[in-house]
Amino acid sequence: MENKFRPAAVIFDMDGLMLDTERPMIPLWAKAGKLYGYVITPEMVIRTLGINLEGTRALMISEFGPEFPYDRIRQELSRLYEEETKTSIPHRPGLLPLLDHLSSLQIPLAVATSTRRESASNKLVKAGILDRFSFLVCGDEVTRGKPAPDIFLLAAEKLGQPPSECLGFEDSPPGLMALHAAGIRSVFVKDLVEPPNDVLSTVWRRCADLAGAIELFA
């Protein structure tokens, strides 16, 4: 396996990878669920990481039953989150140094996130990094969400590069599986979840933080 790689383009996941948005959601899910008489545990929230809105809906209904008021709880969750992030959203460690380095190499960038476009754009604006990316591909723009490869294949297509010439950054098992299925080299940066060994075996490189990935680029 080569030690370094000069990709034609780089694709980033968003939540938990670039933005510190997943950890704060755990207590907010619990608070929103409590309003409707449901106990939504941290373990349950962690199972939703990396999957899209419909996948989360299916998982929650499978856990709590068909009467689970997903849409109402999700609406309350969104309200609580907006209250907490009125002005800014924090970055994950090392994000800006990595983006600056890729910019210096003139490597085009895209975001491929399971989040819907309106919410994703809003988060990236609050984080001050929307203009860093040539393209934004969102969960409501593909039929199949992660771990299917669709969102990464669409991002590579928009960037005008074959998947084999791209590099993808992810923090979640579904995202890493999607990159592998798309034929894109993956870099894993852990946030909340340690992937199982069969998923880790597909990873090209693992970094402690985003800045640690700077040395990967030939």
Explained architecture:
This protein has 2 domains: 9-20 and 89-216, 3-Layer(aba) Sandwich (Rossmann fold); 25-84. It contains 9 helices and 6 strands; from the N terminus they run βαααααβαβαβαβαβ. It has helices at 25-35, 42-47, 53-64, 70-84, 95-104, 117-127, 150-159, 173-182, 197-200; strands at 9-12, 109-113, 135-138, 166-170, 185-189, 205-207. A 6-stranded parallel beta sheet has the order 3-2-1-4-5-6, with helices on both faces. α8 links the parallel β4 and β5. α1 packs across α4 (70-84). The radius of gyration is 17 Å and the shape is globular.
Task: Give a nutshell description of this structure.
Helix content is 41%, strand content 12%. The protein has 218 residues and is of the alpha/beta class.
First-to-last CA distance: 14 Å
Q: Over the alpha carbons, how many angstroms does the gyration radius reach?
A: 17 Å
Q: Uncertain segments of ≥5 residues (pLDDT<50)?
A: none
CATH architecture of the largest domain: 3-Layer(aba) Sandwich
Structural class computed from helices and strand pairing: alpha/beta
Helix content: 40-55%
Report the strand count.
6
Mean pLDDT: 95
Order of helices and strands: EHHHHHEHEHEHEHE
CATH class of the largest domain: Alpha Beta
Proportion in β-strands: 5-15%
